[in-house]
Each structure stands twice: as C-alpha cells, then as structure tokens.
Amino acid sequence: MYSFYPRVIPVLLLKQEGLYKGKNFKEHRYLGDPINALKIFNEKEVDELVFFDIEASKSKTGPNLDMLNEIAGECFMPLAFGGGINSIELIREILSLGVEKVILNSAAVHNKGLVSEAVRYFGSSTITCAIDYKTDFLGRKRVYTHSGTKKTNLEPLAWSKELQTMGVGELIINSIDAEGTKKGYDFTYFKVFQQNLNIPLVISGGSQGKVDFDRCLKQGINGMAGGACFVFQGKHDAVLITYEK
Amino acid sequence: MITIIDCGLGNLSSIKNMFSYLGIASIVSSDKKEIQKASKLVLPGVGSFDTGMKNLKELDLISLIQEKVLMEKTPILGICLGAQLLLDRSDEGIEKGLALIGGNVISFSETLKKEKFNLPIPNMGWRDVEFKDEEDLKFKSIPSKFYFVHSFYFELEDKNYLWNTSNYGFKFCSGFKKDNVFGVQFHPEKSHQYGMQILKYFANYV
Fold this sequence. Notes:
Radius of gyration of chain A: 16 Å
Helix content of chain B: 25-40%
Shape of chain B: globular
Distance between the termini of chain B: 13 Å
Strand content of chain B: 25-35%
Order of helices and strands of chain A: EEEHEHHEHEHHEEEHEHEHEHEE
Number of domains of chain A: 1
Order of helices and strands of chain B: EHEHEHHEHEEHEHEEEEEH
CATH topology of chain A: TIM Barrel
CATH class of chain B: Alpha Beta
Structural class of chain B: alpha/beta
Radius of gyration of chain B: 16 Å
Strand order of the largest sheet of chain B: 2-1-3-4-12-11-10-7-8
Number of helices of chain B: 8
Structural class of chain A: alpha/beta
CATH topology of chain B: Rossmann fold
Largest sheet of chain B: 9 strands, mixed
Number of strands of chain A: 14
Number of strands of chain B: 12
CATH superfamily of chain A: Aldolase class I
CATH superfamily of chain B: Class I glutamine amidotransferase (GATase) domain
Oligomer: heterodimer
CATH architecture of chain A: Alpha-Beta Barrel
Number of domains of chain B: 1
C-alpha cells in the first residue's frame, strides 16, 4: 500500500550552544558544536534526527530558538525537537523554523489540555510525546519529567495509553536507567507498549548500536533511537560521531 | 542566479544550504527586482494554499512570476505547497493558484475515504518515488526515496506532464514537469542525496 521504512534516529542533546551526552540523564559530557555534528550526520544520510534542549524545561528559560533555527537550516533530513515546549504559540514558532515534529514531555504531564490542543491545531503526525521512565526503589516503573529530575505518580503504560487517546502521533519510550549506558535497550518492558498501543513507537535508552537495531527489526520495532552509540566509541568512550545501522 | 522566492512560509535556508553544498549559487528573496533578474526560480513553502497565494499577492509577485515563467520561459521548481501553488486551484482554499500548469490540488482524506483506505493524514515519512526519466536523474539506487509531509496531492489535467509518482493507499502524482515548469510534493531539501539529485537536475536544466 505504501513504502514504510524502519527509522534509526540519533538523539542529540543541547545545552546552551553546545552538544552534550550523559549517562542516566546525568554526567553530561561536552561533545562539540551542534552544527558540526549535524554536518557529519548529513554526510551519513541519517533517517531522521532528534534534538532535545535539556535545560529548557528545567531552567524555564524556554528552548534556544536561534540555535534551533540554525540547526533546521543545516539539516538535510527530517528533524524533531523537544525541550521546554509548553504552548501552542511556541509549537507554531518551532514548526515555522522548518522543524518537522515537536516533542512534548514535561508540559504534557502538567497540562494535558496542551496535548489535545496541539494535535487539533497541527495534526497528529506533527506531535510526538516522549516518556522518560525509571524504576523506583520499590521496583515500580514511574514517569519522570524535567529531564529526569522530577518523579511523577504516573505509570508509564497507563500514561502512554492516555497520550494515544489524546491523538499523539508517535511516542518515544525512553529508559532513564539504560540511557547512555550502551548496555542494550529495555526490550522486555518495551514489548508491553508494543502489545498495548497502535501508534508508531520509538525505543530509546541504552542502544548498543547495530546489534540492537537488528534485534529491533526482528521484533517488529520500527523506530530506534540512539545517543551514546553514535557519539562515543571504543572502551574509553572517545568522542567520535558515527552512524552504523 | 537561482532565486528562492520567500513568501513567508517556513524556513528556506535548508534549500539554500543544499544548493551551496552542491556548489550552486542561490539567493533567498521576496524582492521584485531580484526575482525579475533571476535565471531560475524556486518556490518553496509549507502551510495552507490560501495563505501562500495571499502572501504572493501582498508581495505583488503573482503577475511577475507568471510573466517570467510563461513569457520568458524562466524555469521554476515548486516544492511542497510551492508546487501546489503552480496549479489552478486547491480543495484546501478558495484562492486561485498561479495556473502555470493545468490541474487541481485534491484532498487526500477525501480520496482515501472514497477508496475506503484507513491511513493517517498527513502522509508523512520516507516513501518510494518512481520517475519517468530515472536514467537522467542518476540516483544512487532505485527506487529513489523522498521525505513527504502533505495532506493534499496534485491532479493534473494532462497526464503527459506527470514526472514522478508515489503510493499512499493509491498511486498519486508526486511531481510534474511541463517544459520549464517543475513541481514536487516531497521535500528534496530533507531527502539527502536523492533530494540533491533533484536540485542538481533543476540547476542543470536548460
């Protein structure tokens, strides 16, 4: 009926003018200039790119739109952006910069009305939500917001179903415990989402690279995000940008 | 010089940057003098049909573009909404198009409903595209793949001007070519090498 390609998506983190990558949402290491990294990803013909401004929602300053404008202009592939997006006006502004999708996370938790309103204004395919989850000391999985700094009482699967009902076009399911570790995706838990939802899903957190992407294809997972596996190489995790899928 | 017409609909720098990556000079402008001087025109844009036409009207560019393209035979490449504006009219609005090629812009959801296909709208993502003149375009692999985001598609009056097709529930016209008038529904500027081949092809067209 139509061609449908799996997507391997590098996720890059912005903090002010620089590009960073951490582990479990902490210990962020400076990687370099975002535009330089972007040029490398252009060369590698990446399927899609995601940028998160990891300070925007914590610091309440809002995303760095000048930086984003520059990024969108240099990007020869589809681009999604998240971080500190909390109003329809801001979504409109971001989309007008040439960004294909916006990603809501903290604001979606605190203002559900924003999600349905955004879907109504801009269409499902433009609105992605990210769910960051972590296992607490009682062994329960819970949703965290504000770049993993604030715990909520939301149970990730229930929350994902609610977002689906609100018309969100896509979900990025991210394990904070696995993030940046390169120890492999949390396939077990992701399966729960696969079985219960019917919108496109992106698995995120802990990707080891090609091994995991191959496993995803076997398990019918179409959206695969990666961070550390694209920017750190070798046993000392030297900064080197690659894109093997 | 290739002039990328800025009618206030979205970020045009990725198109300009892709041209410069290919070593092709271009400028972004909405200035009548610049557009008058242009050897080639690119009309990009995202947004709604009526907003696009109203912006062109406000900038007083409609008759200028029509003259350049139809009388002086200046090549023009429409991208996404910009390509839709080159047709006569659209289901999306009430404004008249530039009418540089005969045809209408049709709503995807209407057709999908009629054909009983249950697919999300807009059609968004990487899709295969088949070209009539694939040899000339020298893609690194076939079928070529392009990135689409759209809810409306072209219906040409004369199918001889069909340049390429894609599939979303049914086969639709994803690009047209009539003498010096080119239009593509997908985004070459977001489609890596494949997109570069389109921009290069247009830049080399004589």
